[in-house]
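ingest -> validate -> predict -> emit
validate: passed (alphabet ok, no gaps, 510 aa)
predict: started
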Amino acid sequence: MLKVISPETMRGIDAHAISTGISSYQLMEQAAESAFDRMLVLLPELGFLGKDDVLVMCGTGNNGGDGLVIARLLSELSDEVAVHVCVVGDQEAMTPETEQNFVALQFCDVTMVDFEAVTSEQLHFDIVVDALLGIGTTLPLRGPIRDAASFVQQSGSRVVSIDIPTGVCAATGDVDDCAVVADITCTMEAVKTGMLLGEAPDYCGHVEVCPIGAPASAWNDVNYSLMLENKDIRDILPERKRQSSKRTFGHVVVLAGSSNMPGAAALSANACITAGAGTVTLITPKVHASVLPDIMTVELESENGFFTSNMFDEVEADLAAATAVVVGPGLGSHPQTQAFVARVLQWSLETQKPVVVDADGLRAVSQHTRLHNKCILTPHEGEFARLTGHSIQEIEQQRDILAQQWASQLHCTLVLKSSVTRIANGTLLGWNTSGTPALATAGSGDVLAGVLGALVAQGISAFEAAMLATHWHGLAGQFISESEVVESATASKVIRSLGPSLLQATGGLM
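emit:
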């Protein structure tokens, strides 16, 4: 999994590396060489043929120094690559490391150009390397740097940004109106938090992490989050061996639905079987006609069309046979239903069986509810506000802190759903950024709950199941966006996209 860190943390890693005896000049060299190596792999995707005009735009700080090293390496690549370097800003203000690389560049086969010549002569470049400002950017952009960023933005060239696109705040994701829009961002050591927030992902393009050669000890006692990559999927999903049977992959009991919302139960159960659960039993007051024939159903008799506390006795034997339980989608808000969920949670605590609590099931969870480390809660912001007493504004400003705090207090794994979902268990913190507006549709959360149930039933830990489920759910949304207009997306289409999206993400190598 990728690490996600704040700019402040990155500066601490740099400082630690230097304290171990690596000079700041050597650290710059290592970081730039790492970015250059990744560029060589990725540039052909942008049409780089090794016979191109390349402009390296450099500021006077250390980010500009990285750009100067990259310009030198590009000049050594081939006689057919024409490398132009434009330094923006007062050269007397260069950091010592940047100045040292600027002097070294005078002996290389590069063409130094000033910014006025670049703009007035209307020169065109196939590739522009943006090394104007790094993660210390403060907004708004001003002066020559703003003009240079605006030029890159409007150049029509393919753009590679070093560490972060100029004009994007590495801490918050705020974006200047002249910010560089990169095709590729080669970021140093780890993804920065701001690259995942707000509009920033649209400006960063494809993000490639470039190790800078810092010692492993630089990561000791460092706060970071985790983000799952496609290549991690195979490491988490259990292998499907030839001798496997349906019992190998768990039995999920889905407690969901009501006479008013039977579709939510169907969506959750259908997603569960589609995401790989060996068997699924849906227990509900009303079975919806869309429930797949692969699913076993139990329709409870209910005068009012919803679960009541005394129904727990009717389902306890089914729960005993379950490997995992999903409770909540479409239950409704009646106090008797909440009492039923409370009994399910108490049973789960006593048996230590995995349980996924979603949607209306969360109404039964309070600040004092006793849960356990195989329990997964899946609130969106409104549900989390109701559970914790925090305002939506407070949650938006402190997602990481509050997710960890409440996961620790409740002894569970918490999936705080948003455009950037947080997954917390009190110790580990994950971010998920996969997905598209295709998931902004009724029933999408019910699908996620079903996927979660399928994964924990297969023996995957609660945290890893939550990381994979949110990522996979997002991949399904992306698959829809690539094949049709997002306006026509439905939760049922998300379910149908689970298989194809996983195949696409893993290359079929499962």
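The mean pLDDT is 95.
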